[in-house]
Design a protein that fits this description.
Number of helices: 15
CATH superfamily of the largest domain: Dihydrodipicolinate Reductase, domain 2
Oligomer: single chain
Number of domains: 2
Shape: globular
CATH class of the largest domain: Alpha Beta
Strand content: 15-25%
Largest sheet: 9 strands, mixed
Helix content: 25-40%
Distance between the termini: 30 Å
Bound molecules: nicotinamide-adenine-dinucleotide
Structural class: alpha/beta
Strand order of the largest sheet: 14-13-12-11-7-10-9-8-15
């Protein structure tokens, strides 16, 4: 979703989403008395970890989601990101932004300081490699969590995140995923119909995330090796997971949703780095083509690319025994053809706002939301697609799940002095699946 061609500027984005939450705030004022949570009347304090574009947007939405919520702590590896994010948020919510100087934390250990502060809700919005560690620590400290996608970049990270997610469930903490399409009302209605059998048994899925090139920040002579990589984290698979995991995962997730989150049995894929070959683009691919196989004979095909001057598409097409369904993000199409024809005709909600409306309502109502299992399964599917494309091998779910490949150092060992080249650009048939 970082495509500069389709995303509004951050300022505009903040302004638009700043006006979208009135409905939810009103709803929370009329919570039934006696919904038993001790939290019901308390001021909810939010801590933001990762003060970039998405983290700032999510903090804005959290502040919109409830009358009695304030932002009290912020962390980022770069101090200037905190300053910029704070100034944007203050423009929108001067009365709700209460971050004292001592609650602004910079550096690689800053996240822990936000977690150790007295916040109730944590927003996790750093680059993905840090998510399993930060999720684990936030759950250990008993915080409710908004967890951006992706939740991990490799299988050990997924397993670690799942352990943390299960603990969140046991502790009755809300864990809401950043797979935003699942919070979009037209998609909720459409996928509801698919799961209700309106196109019969779904046997084939085709989904795409074909986009142009994304942003990159020109290397400055004074930057250390690690600073170059942290500022351009998208292009290092050990930080981002590669674009299939970092971005195209949204479409893979919708494909999984259509099959009621059935687990695939195996994956075969191809991919490469054809156009975006310069050093500044790190070690990631610029295109993938993947097919997931299922035990009931269903197949799900995924295509993604980040190449400029090519056609764009973010869509999921589902074929079933009684019809066909098209969900096309660019055309805003949600349509069923066949025995039960239907088309979504409404305006649709602000899905980013909905994520936080649901999260805060769940806290107020003491009805925790647990997105852990499906979000990590979708994340694992994107990772196994990458594994198959990198290695050129067909890989089973069990093999992928049990993989011990860590793409990079333990996130706790990151520092500005770290020098890590990362794996070389993968070559199918030569790069080993580990
Ligand atoms: N759901 C969506 O539609 C959507 C859209 C955009 C981004 N995202 C996801 O949100 C996450 C952030 O993306 P973004 O676009 O905001 O990127 P960004 O680069 O704008 O922001 C990330 C911020 O995290 C900071 N950071 C890096 N490592 C950190 C650490 N260890 N501790 C604290 N802060 C750290 C960076 O300095 C940066 O300010 C990514 O996982 C991305 O995939 C989701």
């Amino acid at each position: 979703m970082k495509n500069k061609e389709i995303v509004k500027t951050r300022r505009n984005f903040l302004k638009t989403s700043g006006t979208a939450a009135i409905g939810s705030t009103v709803a929370l004022n009329f919570l039934v008395p006696g919904t038993s949570s001790a939290m019901n009347n308390n001021t909810l304090k939010v801590g933001l970890i990762g003060c970039g574009g998405r983290g700032t947007g999510a903090a804005n939405q959290a502040l919109n989601a409830d009358n009695n919520v304030i932002l009290t702590a912020m962390a980022d590896v770069f101090e200037e990101r905190i300053v910029e994010s704070l100034s944007n948020l203050k423009e929108l919510h001067d009365d709700k932004v209460k971050v004292e100087n001592k609650q602004k934390y910079a550096g690689f250990d800053a996240y822990q300081k936000v977690i150790d502060s007295d916040v109730d809700v944590i927003i996790l919005a750093t680059p993905p490699v840090f998510r399993p560690l930060q999720l684990e620590k936030a759950v250990a400290a008993g915080k409710h969590i908004f967890c951006e996608k992706p939740m991990a970049v490799d299988a050990p990270g997924i397993r670690r995140a799942l352990e943390a997610a299960k603990k969140a469930k046991k502790k009755n903490l809300s864990l809401v995923s950043g797979f935003c399409w699942r919070f979009h009302s037209p998609k909720r209605e459409t996928f509801g119909k698919i799961l209700n059998g309106d196109i019969g048994e779904v046997h084939t899925i085709y989904n795409t995330y074909n986009t142009g090139e994304l942003w990159s920040k020109p290397w400055q002579p004074e930057w250390s090796d690690m600073e170059k990589k942290m500022r351009n984290w998208l292009y290092y698979n050990w930080i981002s997971g590669d674009h299939i995991v970092e971005q195209a995962i949204h479409s893979i997730d919708m494909g999984s949703w259509a099959l009621n989150d059935r687990q695939p049995t195996s994956v075969t894929a191809t991919g490469g780095r054809q156009v975006r070959t310069e050093d500044v683009f790190g070690n990631i691919f610029d295109h993938f083509a993947v097919v997931f196989d299922y035990d009931n004979g269903a197949k799900s095909f995924h295509f993604s690319r980040q190449q400029k001057n090519c056609s764009r598409s973010y869509a999921v097409e589902m074929l079933g025994s009684k019809g066909r369904c098209v969900v096309d993000v660019i055309r805003r199409q949600h349509e069923i053809f066949g025995e039960n024809p239907w088309r979504y005709r409404g305006e649709g909600n602000d899905m980013y706002q909905q994520e936080h409306d649901d999260l805060f309502a769940s806290i107020r109502n003491n009805k925790p939301i647990y997105d852990g299992d499906w979000m990590l399964q979708s994340n694992m599917m994107a990772i196994m697609g990458r594994m198959a494309a990198y290695s050129g091998q067909t890989i089973t779910w069990e093999e992928a799940w049990n993989s011990d490949e860590n793409l990079g150092p333990d996130p706790e060992d990151y520092s500005w002095e770290l020098v890590y080249e990362g794996p070389p650009v993968a070559k199918p048939g030569i790069t080993k699946f580990i």
